[in-house]
Write a structure and sequence with these properties.
Blueprint: E1 5-6, E2 21-23, E3 31-33, E4 37-42, H1 46-56, E5 61-66, H2 69-78, E6 83-87, H3 95-104, E7 113-117, H4 121-124, E8 135-139, E9 142-143, H5 144-206, H6 210-240, E10 249-252, H7 253-263, E11 273-279, E12 282-285, H8 287-304, E13 311-317, E14 322-330, H9 335-338, H10 349-354, H11 361-371, E15 375-381, E16 386-394
Parallel strand pairs: 1-9, 4-5, 4-6, 6-7, 7-8, 11-13
Antiparallel strand pairs: 2-3, 10-12, 13-14, 14-16, 15-16
The structure holds adenosine-5'-triphosphate and magnesium ion.
Length: 400
């Protein structure tokens, strides 16, 4: 059907800005010319195509003209389109049929559609597929000003969408780069650090000077702390890059906890950690990764709990499908801190002031537990004066 136009009273000022330039974010002085924005117009009447082209033509906009639904689908196969103007009454394939095919394909389903129709408003809404993307109607005779206004809105939306996806890509690239950087740095720091630790160990053997022994001891403990931080940064890089792969084997988790407790025993001091197990304490875990999670919890209990008090690690193996591990210490965590305690860099108070930790221990512990399909929770009660971290671990492998 031939379109009749209601032309604007005056020649319109350019209603939408041509999308010609964008600034490259990393090199502020370089301008990159973006490709023109494609608008698809589908109409079986050639005069209508010409009229719409004349109305919408401006720099930065490319009109793709199709005389039928089939031609339009062919154009959509090779071009990315910001908006499609579709005449509803066409022979063979009408505008709604074409629109349903457009909505059916993943690549084109979000293209906004403007139907040009002479039908009543009620029948126009028989189109199915509104949920997939924006749909609008223009009723004949077409008001040129209204058409320009609607096209302007959709072109601007398209530009914003493009800009946002470019920014997202850029962000993801720099995030990936940061993580790579952290992983490489963490890995390469280990070698010189082990030289420092070995040197500090050998130093007291070379001389009887008491000050050397004290200094060497300080170097050793600082280097050990630094090695722990490097390990944590490497863990963080592994978590963030999504490269954590579990190698599960059947383990007695109570034995694993006893080994961890032994690692915290100081020379010439009784152990502060007690491990108690009941029932079946065997589960399929990645021993290295799971041990690290428990080690973080026990280390925290010793470091942040009330000094000199015992830390209790309890394993409850009475349930058939899961294992419950609790780590309890004296001392409470302030309520304000509890809400985001499993997020990274949540260390407070002494830990932050003294620079003892990075605030990554609970974040890595919770991530490692969840990677096993398990769950972690904390209860810190003023009344009891204790803090308990509870890990629930499925015995068998489950989707994480
Ligand atoms: N068992 C606990 N008792 C009391 N406070 C705790 C306990 N566990 C954690 N916290 C508090 O939660 C904070 C975060 O713990 P997290 O293990 O994430 O970091 P961190 O121990 O400070 O440093 P990092 O573990 O990276 O060396 C701690 O700084 C501490 O304030
Ligand atoms: Mg910690």
């Amino acid at each position: 059907m031939l379109l009749r136009w209601r032309l604007p009273p005056e020649p319109s000022a350019r209603p939408f800005a041509p999308p010609v330039f964008c600034v490259h974010p990393r090199e502020p002085k370089t301008y990159v010319v973006t490709a023109p924005i494609n608008i698809l117009v589908v109409d079986d009447v050639p005069q209508n195509l010409i009229a719409i082209e004349a109305l919408l033509a401006r720099p930065g906009i490319a009109l793709l003209k199709a005389a039928s639904g089939a031609e339009a689908l062919g154009l959509l196969l090779v071009h990315e389109v910001a908006l499609a103007l579709v005449d509803v009454q066409m022979p063979n394939m009408d505008g709604f049929e074409l629109a349903e095919l457009i909505r059916g394909s993943e690549r084109t389903r979000s293209i906004p559609l403007i139907f040009l129709t002479a039908a009543s408003r009620e029948t126009s809404y028989s189109f199915r597929g509104y949920e997939a993307g924006a749909v609008d109607f223009l009723y004949k005779p077409i008001d040129a000003q209204a058409l320009l206004g609607k096209v302007k809105v959709f072109v601007e939306l398209y530009q914003q969408k493009k800009q946002m996806s470019q920014q997202l890509e850029e962000l993801q690239r720099s995030l990936h780069l940061n993580e790579m950087f952290m992983a490489v740095l963490g890995h390469d720091l280990r070698t010189p650090l082990s030289v420092v630790m070995n040197g500090a160990m050998l130093l007291p053997m070379m001389t009887d000077h008491p000050k050397v022994a004290v200094t060497a001891q300080r170097i050793q403990s600082s280097a050990k702390r630094m090695a722990q931080m490097v390990d944590q940064l490497l863990d963080l890089a592994r978590i963030r890059s999504g490269e954590m792969q579990l190698r599960r084997t059947s383990q007695d988790v109570a034995d694993l906890c006893r080994t961890i407790a032994d690692e915290f025993v100081l020379p010439d001091r009784p152990s502060r950690v007690t491990v108690e197990g009941s029932g079946n304490t065997v589960a399929a875990v990645d021993a290295g990764i799971f041990a690290q999670a428990i080690s973080n919890l026990v280390g925290n209990a010793l470091q942040h709990g009330e000094p000199e008090h015992a830390v209790l690690v309890r394993l409850d193996g009475s349930a058939p499908d899961s294992l419950r591990i609790t780590v309890t210490n004296r001392g409470v965590i302030p309520v304000i801190q509890l809400a985001g305690i499993f997020a990274p860099f949540q260390h407070r108070g002494e830990s932050r002031k003294s620079g003892q930790g990075l605030g990554l221990g609970l974040y890595t512990a919770s991530t490692f537990v969840r990677a096993h399909g398990g769950d972690i929770a904390v209860a810190s009660e003023e009344g009891l004066g204790t803090t308990t971290f509870t890990v629930t671990l499925p015995r068998r492998e489950q989707a994480a």
